[in-house]
Specification:
Tetracycline Repressor, domain 2, 2 domains, about 0% strand, about 210 residues, single chain, mainly alpha, elongated
Length: about 210
């Protein structure tokens, strides 16, 4: 039999979800300055008290949005395809495909966070959390290339990690897919070609 707590838990989940959806909409439409606990609660159709029951602060709400985006946009599933690749060179190609298919989904929120990060503690925390995750992925890729013996001799693992990380720039994605109207497939293919030409030893390319 369902517990008497189940309806309450279901309402709680709905409230939390509504607040996260509202937070995303506010940031996408009006930027980080528009986001307050009150504005999120009003947009979600819940009380300010309910917002604070779920998220202790605005910063906590922003960090929760990062995890929410990962779940709703299936970013983890997209990234897992990289680590499931049979070898480092294939992983590099899949990395390009992951960025091409996943990052456009969160571009507007990420750009808003990037713009606000120097003045907004919540944005700064979300930005740092994102960059730390990026660096871990780039380190794993660079170490895999080195372990497979295919890392271009011009690069150390640390230098390759840093350059792969820098090429994840939101500017690069926005300029090519929006300003220059590249399709997802065009971006993925050309980005993959760039990564392969830059980081894979020519003598080890197929």
């Amino acid at each position: 039999m369902p517990s008497i707590e189940d309806p309450r838990n279901a309402r709680s989940r709905r409230t939390r979800h509504a607040l996260l959806v509202a937070t995303r909409e506010l940031i996408e439409q009006d930027g980080l300055p528009a986001l307050t606990m009150t504005s999120a609660a009003e947009r979600a159709g819940v009380s300010r008290r309910a917002a604070y029951l779920h998220f202790g602060s605005r910063n906590e709400l922003i960090i929760a949005l990062y995890r929410h985006l990962g779940e709703t946009e299936r970013l983890g599933e997209s990234l897992q395809a990289v680590w499931d690749a049979p070898d480092a060179v294939s992983a590099l190609t899949e990395w390009a495909a992951h960025i091409a298919r996943a990052h456009p989904r969160i571009l507007s929120v990420s750009r808003a966070v990037e713009t606000a990060r120097h003045d907004d503690p919540g944005a700064a925390a979300m930005w740092q959390f994102t960059m730390d995750n990026w660096l871990r992925g780039c380190t794993r890729l660079a170490e895999w290339l080195e372990r497979d013996g295919v890392l271009h001799p011009a690069w150390t693992v640390d230098a390759a990690r840093d350059m792969i990380w820098s090429l994840m720039s939101w500017d690069l994605l926005e300029r090519l897919t929006i300003d220059r109207t590249w399709t997802t497939d065009e971006f993925a293919g050309r980005y993959s070609a760039l990564l392969t030409a830059t980081f894979v030893d020519p003598s080890r390319r197929l």
